[in-house]
Amino acid sequence: MSLEDNAILLLQLAEGNQKAFEKLYYGYRAQIFGRILKQVRSVEFAQDIVQDVFIKVWQNRSQIDVSKNFKSYLYTIAQSTVYDYFRKIASDQAKSEQLMILSKGKCANDIEAAVSYKEMEKYLNDILDIIPERCREVYVLCKLEGRSYDEVSKLLNISTATINNHIVKATGIIKSHWNWNYCCFFMMLFAEYYPVFHT
Lowest CB count within 10 Å: 24, 36, 115, 136, which one? Predict the structure, then answer.
């Protein structure tokens, strides 16, 4: 999309033109989604955040400065929305647990971020240590390594019903010891040290 076309669409958007909004949405949606996905590591969460980003664009359409780079403006809103989303899910135990599991796969290269990553990993491992050995083994294989119940059943020679019982028990123990605000802080910290919204 050329700068001229962009400027025309933004002027039309400021006037409330929905077709102009749709063109901008489809023109930038994929880029925004890809960058958000790198931070939240979940397609479902990324899709929700993308929708929130463009809702904000529509709500603030009259305040957009057409002379400035719209992509930079969009990325600024996206980064802010990611932070807001992390804060919002701090009270949602299921989503917080899912994001924590996903964040374990994120690579830390910066020294300070690496230290924080190690602290977060230790925090999770300390909680896992409380879980009985067999129960913990099943939880790690299924939840952290992403193996299927059937695969774990063959690997450990136990039934899928037993696996489910272990998962339920482990999840209950984790939830009773989990500090959701603490974990949310680390997720936001990773987003800060690994910004992906740049032009």
Answer: 115
